[in-house]
Amino acid sequence: MTRVRTDLFVSLDGYTSTTDNTPSNPMGVDWGRLTKAHTGTRTFRERVFGDTSGAGTTGVDDTYVASFFEGAGAEIMGAGMFGLHAFPDDPDWKGWWGDRPPFGTPVYVLTHTAPRPPITMEGGTTFHFRTGPIEDVLAEATEAAGGLDVRVGGGVGTARDFLRAGLVDQLHLTVAPIVLGRGTRLWDDLSGLDRTHTVTTEVAESGTIHVTFTR
Ligand SMILES: NC(=O)c1ccc[n+]([C@@H]2O[C@H](COP(=O)([O-])OP(=O)(O)OC[C@H]3O[C@@H](n4cnc5c(N)ncnc54)[C@H](OP(=O)(O)O)[C@@H]3O)[C@@H](O)[C@H]2O)c1
């Protein structure tokens, strides 16, 4: 049965975005700290960078990264996460994700600038551009997933919309043991997920806390 899954990085104080970006370091140092446990794993390095040297961490973080990459038959993301906001006037812009994006599935990009033609990338990823309602886009993604899961990849606004609408069956949080002090807050105006979902936690060797809400 298709489940709707989302995975997010969050700081100890509940922030999902960072604010130390500069033109010379567009992601900022804090984004690296927020995602360090995830991107440092062997599985991430293999799947995203094609690094087959065996470098990278193993253990609890790596187990979660491996499950992140398994079982998804379609992806939904917002225009921000795709990168449309960064290059709104470039019709040839194909997103942040390189020639061979790590999804390998249909990816439904939510944007008010649709209609745009789909973009087929290497490795099985095709970007389709859709204007909501999110329930309709989810129905299309579910059909495309063919019984596999639909992953709501982000960004934060899109993930929060799906959470607010009660559409997420499994939320996995990678809680980095850092304090950001500012950014976009995950939980504002959202409550009750701990009552509708079963919550499990696990602490990795890196000190990262993995919190999973499952319906
Ligand atoms: N912590 C994490 O795990 C994580 C993961 C990913 C990203 N992030 C962070 O999230 C931030 C980006 O998130 P974001 O909230 O700015 O952007 P986003 O969720 O990727 O995209 C939001 C945009 O998508 C479009 N959209 C959303 N719903 C729509 C609908 N129903 N119909 C049509 N268009 C719709 C709108 O763009 P238009 O109206 O312009 O078309 C909207 O402004 C970044 O700071 C990034 O670092 C964090």
From TrEMBL:
It comes from Microlunatus flavus. InterPro entries: DHFR-like_dom_sf, RibDG_C, Riboflavin_Biosynth_HTPR. Residues 4-191 form the Bacterial bifunctional deaminase-reductase C-terminal domain. This is Dihydrofolate reductase. GO terms for biological process: riboflavin biosynthetic process. It holds the Pfam family RibD_C. GO terms for molecular function: 5-amino-6-(5-phosphoribosylamino)uracil reductase activity. SUPFAM superfamilies: Dihydrofolate reductase-like (SSF53597).
